[in-house]
Specification:
The chain is of the alpha+beta class. The protein has two domains: about 350 residues, Bira Bifunctional Protein, Domain 2 (BirA Bifunctional Protein, domain 2, 2-Layer Sandwich); about 90 residues, Rossmann fold, CATH 3.40.50. The strands form three sheets. An eight-stranded mixed sheet has the order 1-5-6-11-10-9-7-8. Strands 13-12-14-15-16 form a five-stranded mixed sheet. β15 and β16 form a beta hairpin. α7 packs antiparallel against α13. The model has no long low-confidence stretch (mean pLDDT about 90).
Amino acid sequence: MALSIPKGTRDYSPAEMAKRNYIFDTIKNVFKLYGYLPIETPAMENLATLTGKYGDEGDKLLFRILNSGNYLKNLPGELFNEDEIPALTAKISEKGLRYDLTVPFARYVVQHRNEIVFPFKRYQIQPVWRADRPQRGRYREFFQCDADVVGSASLLNEAELLQMTDAIFAKLGIDVVIKLNNRKILAGAAELMGRSESLADITAAIDKIDKIGLDAVKGELAERGITPEQIAVLEPILLLSGDNGEKLDAIEKIFSAQQGAGLAGVAELRAIFDYVKELDISAPVELDLSLARGLNYYTGAIIEVKARSVEMGSVCGGGRYDNLTGVFGLKDVSGVGISFGADRIYDILTMLNLFPESSLRTASVLFANMGRREEIYSLRAVRALRSEGIAAEIYPDAAKLKKQMEYADKAGFLFVVIAGENEMASEKFLLKNMNDKSQRELCLSQLLEELKNPKAR
């Protein structure tokens, strides 16, 4: 049988893990700098927690887990008809793998509300799963790096998330554009169309505009029951051009007679852009009125980030959600968050060759094993290096030196330390640089000083 892994998942070698950890550490350090605290939640949640939060299309992408034991026992035969599959699934599966980190976080906030000090700022770096069709930049198992703040409706939080996003991508060296919109503006557009009740359908279709184009979106809206006259009301809003101020002025004029949700969305965006002017954000921040983000729980500002030098979907996204904890019984707790797609960031850094040299190193110092006495002599140096935070190890077998050197080269060690009879007699070590092949004899204190130099590692 040919061994394989499920489509849409990946193995990671030590070298690849070193690169991934560089991404995680970069993101985590910025999160911590802004006062966000780490939490973790289980890989699986009760389906009652997950379903109904992502829209119909999101619910279809949930990985469901079969109940343990004889889950088919005592089920009526009529449930096995094709038309009854949803009812059958509900009977045999009560848990599912998490689709994102935001809904589990909302559940966490409600469940632990008596232990949390609001406003509560948390970050979370864990895998999520979606039963999607695998393709470049889209996986069934992937890591998200989330930062959210709940318990505050201040738009300063949105501005801070934009500032964090800019800082992270600047540190990673990825040239990005940050796109902004507001779900209230989309709600205002639905009101103008006379289809407020169809907001979820409208945003689900608009969310695909970058993938399938405007004409295909119009076709999908028609399939969802939106009339040509109603689509004609929406289209000019999606096609508004100009700079951010001009677009806001134009959309405000469109909504001026309405005095509804749309004007509130415009006011919120104006406030966020005022913050942006003061924060010295280096990445361009653009108002994109076609930005929808199909997740149903967003209620205010929505954010999406795209790499400018690579054709790929969004690498980061998020927004404001006012009602998410309310569905779990805790009302009036507004939240806003951002999520970084670590796997897409990894692919971009690989394609553009942007990983720094330090992130490519998986090993540091190898001590050659020349025999039992030499082992004992080398072990004290290994212990001394480790106590200084320098990764060091000794080859486990007294093999031929050529074999050990070949191993060190293939495993990516920066240095090999050799201690034979001559070195032991003079209480020295022979340090060999695997990059330039130079070598020097050093005493233990000199060896420590040499390898403590960050440039040596």
